[in-house]
Specification:
mainly alpha
Length: about 130
């Protein structure tokens, strides 16, 4: 359990680093006018890294990949919607810089993902 949690943190950190780096690059290239597109595209990049690392390394799943990807995609869609709403609220009414807002939103999403992934997406079947 401790090893899996440590792997989850490393995996999540790796996916977060990819997501944040892409977000920064897009913000620099496209500016704040494209904030939600930048948020969504960077989230998609992090999604790919996160799914592959979680499936193969963290949870070492041998389940049906299509089914797991579908469930992971549902969680990711909810995370993306919640993330976009949070970015909107933090950058708009709260007047927080987009790079700081993105960092805060990523932490918020990571906090609930471990339980969701371990109990719903990559759950080992009962014997």
């Amino acid at each position: 359990m401790k090893q899996r949690l440590l792997r989850f943190l490393i995996s999540g950190g790796s996916a977060a680093a990819v997501e944040y780096a892409v977000f920064i690059a897009l913000q620099m290239a496209l500016s704040d006018k494209w904030l939600f597109a930048n948020q969504s595209l960077s989230f998609g990049c992090g999604f790919v890294v996160s799914f592959l690392l979680n499936r193969h390394w963290v949870f070492q799943s041998h389940g049906h990949m299509g089914s797991e990807l579908f469930k992971y995609g549902i969680v990711a869609t909810i995370n993306l919607a919640a993330g976009n709403l949070a970015i909107f609220l933090l950058v708009g009414p709260a007047d927080i810089h987009p790079l700081i807002a993105k960092f805060l939103v990523m932490g918020m999403i990571a906090a609930w993902n471990y339980l969701i992934f371990s109990r719903l997406v990559f759950r080992k079947p009962a014997i």
